[in-house]
Design goal:
Blueprint (H helix, E strand, L loop, with lengths): L18 E3 L1 E3 L10 E6 L8 E2 L1 E2 L5 E3 L6 H4 L5 H5 L5 E9 L7 E7 L8 E2 L4 E2 L5 E3 L11 E10 L15 E6 L2 E7 L5 E7 L6 E2 L11 E2 L7 E9 L13 H5 L3 E5 L10 E5 L4 E3 L17 E4 L6
Parallel strand pairs: 2-11, 12-21, 12-22
Antiparallel strand pairs: 1-6, 3-4, 3-7, 5-6, 7-8, 9-10, 12-15, 13-14, 13-18, 16-17, 18-19, 18-20, 19-22
């Protein structure tokens, strides 16, 4: 029997993807691999945009990017990544076809090996295992088992309780005893929604327990539970071209701003009570108005970082 000749590889074809992006829902913590529009383009030429596709692992992959053909045809081995030419800048634009998440952009230098390791600019901590976070739109339907905080943020103007430009892309954070519960940012109209699991139920210890027995705990029924939630905001008005989206890093690195519990900036709003089963609407009140007119305004006033008192 004639021996077979060794198998010879006539040609080896490799394809290198310059970027892979994973996105995760800040509410559920789950990877989002459907319903997103993810495009990339050079900063100086938005018309040359390329759309990403999602693979079976929920990672959005970009290929055929302008100026990176030689990279994409590279070997992809260790030598390839060690001897790369200078990386090229790209803008990644993210939007949601299903209106669950707010749009934004991020800036990257490509090619990037492996799944993009986004870093939270507020903490400098990498989130490579999760990916880039997605933040809820104000119109998103929240699960009935979750807490919801809403606000319509507007810049405070002297002598006016119902005017002021929307605080577009302002960040709102909710904490309980210093622990971050949720973070979100406003849309172009200044509307923001925070959706998060309810905190642990509150228990109360009886003041006069029977002698020689551990203090029994009594807890309000679930429908009567409430929590004192701490709030903080970041806002320094961002300059964004018409028709464009704000950069996620710019949004999350705005400076600390002031929220106001009243229309005359006499009472800062730093805390509000969340009740189980009820949405918490943050508003500025007009304490100087007549009792009949002294209802909350429809907005929450905010003073940008660096504004005079």
């Amino acid at each position: 029997m004639q021996a077979l000749e060794p198998f010879k590889i006539a040609e080896r074809l490799t394809v290198v993807a310059p970027l892979g992006l994973r996105f995760w829902d800040d509410v559920s913590g789950k990877t989002i691999g459907t319903g997103l529009s993810v495009t990339a383009y050079p900063p100086d030429n938005p018309a040359r945009r390329v759309e990403a596709f999602a693979n079976r692992s929920g990672v959005y992959v970009l290929r055929n990017l302008p100026g990176l053909r030689e990279v994409e045809n590279g070997a992809g081995d260790a030598d390839f990544w060690r001897t790369l030419p200078p990386k090229q800048p790209f803008v990644i634009e993210v939007a949601d076809f299903e209106s669950r998440f707010l749009p934004f952009t991020i800036n990257v230098s490509l090619p990037e090996r492996g799944v993009f390791a986004w870093q939270d600019p507020s903490t400098a901590s990498p989130t490579a295992a999760l990916g880039v976070p997605l933040y809820s739109t104000p119109a998103r339907q929240a699960p009935t088992s979750m807490a919801v905080v809403r606000a319509e943020l507007r810049e405070w103007q002297p002598g006016s309780s119902h005017e002021g430009r929307p605080a577009a892309w302002a960040v709102l954070e909710a904490r309980l005893s210093g622990r971050l519960l949720a973070r979100g940012f406003a849309d172009e109209q200044g509307r923001v929604a925070l959706i998060f699991p309810y905190p642990e139920p509150v228990t109360h210890t009886l003041s006069s327990p029977p002698a020689h027995s551990p203090p029994p705990e009594t807890a309000p029924q679930l429908r009567d539970q409430e929590w004192a939630i701490e709030f903080a905001a970041l806002y320094a008005p961002l300059v964004v071209d018409r028709g464009s989206f704000a950069d996620l890093n710019d949004i999350l690195t705005q400076r600390l701003a002031s929220l106001w519990g009243d229309t005359e900036r006499g009472r800062p709003l730093t805390e509000a009570t969340l009740q189980f089963g009820r949405e918490l609407i943050l508003r500025s009140r007009d304490f100087a108005a007549d009792p009949i007119e002294g209802e909350p305004t429809s907005v929450l006033f905010i003073t940008p970082a660096g504004s005079p008192p």
